[in-house]
Amino acid sequence: MGGSYGLALMADHNLLDKHLTEEQYERLSHSVMLRQSKLSLRIAAIFLAMLLGLPLINRYMPGLANTTVAGFTLSWLFLAVLFYPITWLLSWFFIKESNRIEADTAAWQAEIDQARKFNRQSDNAGGASGSDTGDRA
Amino acid sequence: MDITGLIPLLFVIGMVIATVWLGVWATKISKTSSDFFVAARSVSVGWNASAISGEYLSAASFMGVAGLVMKFGYDPLWYPACYAAGYLFLLLFIAGPLRRFGAYTIPDFAEGRFDSPGFRKVAVTFVLFIGFFYTMPQMKGAGLTMQQIMGWPYWVGIAVVGSVITFNVAIGGMKGITFVQAFQYWAKMFAISAPLFVLVSVYGSYHGRLGEIAGDPAGKPVQQEPAKVKVLSLPAGTHVLQLPDGGKASISEKDLRAATAGAETTSTGTRGLMIRTAEGGSAPPVASADVPPGGSLQVLNEKGPDGAAPPALSVNFATPTAVSFSGAVPGAPANKAWIQPFGPFTSKNGYPLLYTYSLIIALVCGTAGLPHILVRFYTNPDGRAAKRTTFWVMVLIGVFYMFTPIWGTLGRMIIPHLYATGKTDAVVIDLPRALDNKLLGAILSGITSAGAFAAFMSTFSGLLVSMSGALAHDIYGKMLRPNSSPEQRMGAFKVAAIMFGAIAMFLGYLVEKFDIAKMVGWAFAIGAASYFPLLLMGSWWRGLTKFGAGAGMLLGGLLSVGAIVYSMLIEKGNAPFVVNSKIALTLMEQPAIWAVPLSLITMFVVSKLTTTHIPRDVNLKMLRLHAPEELGLSKNYIEH
Which of A72, A79, B93, B341 has its CA 20 to 30 A from that of B470? Predict the structure, then answer.
């Protein structure tokens, strides 16, 4: 899950200047959004398949939908009972992954800050540590 | 009214006192206006999740879902499922970004995202649209509950309950509301679940009852318990019947004579009792509303043993008298249509699949477009806490929603007379009272009545805070009097709360005939076509301009409002013009399937035409929406 493409994208750029340029901000915001949105879309796809698939099963496979299991029809059991724990699982998984992305980003930022401080001291703005951030990602 | 009849009232009064007392107590802590509006953004995850759940579980969840499931069976299960599922969408796409952006209200987001105070005006209007659509069913819940437990006229319950809540909001603001609503979540959770353990042990299990229904496809619910009807004091020639649901009907001596005579001689095929409404006097009979036409009807002396031979025509009506009827209940769908998908609820106008999908879209997207829910994400200390809060909200409301269909299922088997009166929304109040142990029944009914009160009080409060906040903060504070002091804004808030409370009570009075959960579904549909596209596109697409957002929101939102109001007028039978196309009727009753895409597409197209109006610092805005707080990038950028 996740992966380093977003941070690698950021690391491509020399972000160790004292001031980030407009373009760099665009790249950075893109890459932060990219990882988060890919995660969101992936989970939404699973969820939508379930949510929008059920009416189709009800419509075109009524035999399956109306099979009785311990009193419940399968469709009732799914929509009125099992549906909720499934949303909890998806939500729990999303939060775990999403926080992981944020932790990655934050750790990477800490490194930048440190480098930036160093650069200021030596008055030597440079991109030598770009590969470091790439490793970190 | 005997002593057991007063028990539910005591529970309700206890709930109201606890609510008002908590509000007053919490007000002592709430001093500054920031506290007043968003609880100083310092509410912990546990409190906040309970409070959001408490606010979210409205009369629609507490009374309406059970009532709609009882009435229609499978199809309304989409309501609770999607009420809960909407939170997943909120979590995936909106909760985190919105919190990080840091603003008090959605209009704040609208203005901040597009640097446009003008756009704020457009955004504010929908707080009011959605708010009023959402408050109407809450007020119906209040009127109906008081009708059931006290026999009050519908409007009295609305006036009393509405006034109490409005007063509480006007003095408490949102800080008070946070504590009150967290408390009310747990009150509601207890009230929806605890009585069921008793009821299930008496009436049979959830799956057992569902199995019976599934095993007898042609079956229909049959009136089992005699419906007790008290005949009160009589003006000459007319008998006023106090019906069990609290409504009143009158009956002429002649009609009653005919009915009792028929019941004595034949058990089936009699015309039944002709009932006239008290207000209508000699208005057309409304027998079908209260007594099944074609069913037999007996007038029994309450003092005599149940099922005894009906008394002669010389029965003394000055004393309390019970009337019972038996036979299949009118208005109840057969078992097969009830338990299987695509029953009468979605098939009303044909196109059940279309109806179902449109309903799903409205509810899932609409959750993200509810102003009174979104404002709560600003009370989380950071975006991460906002996500955790959302997860716990999903757990809290999901557990709650697992219980509600059990009420509907047992209600169908035990108190089917609600089908005849159309008051299935009262199932959670009336079901415990069917118990043989009247004291226990009154206590359990008291618990559910108090839960219902918690439901419409908490949601009504939250909506009033949002609507009044929008007026005080956005219209008064930003548009009318930008230089007003915090005290003046607080004053505007209080005036707005009282004004909106009064309007909501009046609207609630008009909607007695509509199902509670269905009305709330409509509020969701409006939110889905207006705020949801704004928040989704605003958070994720940097190309969105204020013109695109405004055009999409207005077009989708206003067309939805129009379509829904038209559907309501049709249902009430006084639409200004008639549409015969069944597909058009389906699409107007559930507009989300066209209105949400319409809104999104309009936003896209108009934004593409007005690209020069993309905010110049859109990248910074995107970072503020999506970068974790630890990055502090936006801060650097601002300093630079």
Answer: B93
